[in-house]
Amino acid sequence: MLTRIDHIGIACFDLDKTVEFYRATYGFEVFHTEVNEEQGVREAMLKINETSDGGASYLQLLEPTREDSAVGKWLAKNGEGVHHIAFGTADVDGDSEAIRDKGVRVLYDQPRTGSMGSRITFLHPKDCHGVLTELVTAAPSAATDH
Ligand code: CMX
Ligand code: CO
């Protein structure tokens, strides 16, 4: 069951400048940063709020580490902006299988590693009314991990 907005993924050309915009404009602080080479991104997670299921909701600011990555290609075509949305679930395996059975393309056979040790998969935007959609199961320690 999808129980929350886990994050909104925002593509940017310069992560440091974008982080500074969110800090100076809204007061949002960086909760976690990492490089995910498999996804081709350098990212910052800004925690917006805790949620009733024990998780949290974040903004995920994404700078590509290479031009041929998903975010690099998207930025070259569209410029900066909202790249994807992500729903949180306790069971990314079960939920992605159930969604696949409804005829929506799930991009990975098995969930891969996302922010803070989470397990993630994606649904094809062309099957989701134009929205690249991610499903996330947070690692148990994610709420306290920096
Ligand atoms: N949102 C909406 N539509 C998108 C999109 C996005 N983020 N990315 C691509 N599309 C659309 C394109 O506009 C294009 O549509 P048209 O054919 O109408 O022009 C179509 O999908 C194909 O796009 P493409 O540029 O040819 O790109 P690819 O097919 O090579 O890749 C996708 C698209 C979704 C398969 C790829 O971006 C992907 O695998 N994404 C999942 C991984 C990812 O996004 N990782 C980065 C985030 C990591 C994280 O969140 O942790
Ligand atoms: Co994401």
From TrEMBL:
CDD domains: MMCE. SUPFAM superfamilies: Glyoxalase/Bleomycin resistance protein/Dihydroxybiphenyl dioxygenase (SSF54593). InterPro entries: Glyas_Bleomycin-R_OHBP_Dase, MeMalonyl-CoA_epimerase, MMCE/EMCE_epimerase, VOC_core. It holds the Pfam family Glyoxalase_4. Keywords: Metal-binding. Residues 4-138 form the VOC domain. PANTHER family: METHYLMALONYL-COA EPIMERASE, METHYLMALONYL-COA EPIMERASE, MITOCHONDRIAL. Belongs to the methylmalonyl-CoA epimerase family. This is Methylmalonyl-CoA epimerase. It comes from Streptomyces nigrescens.
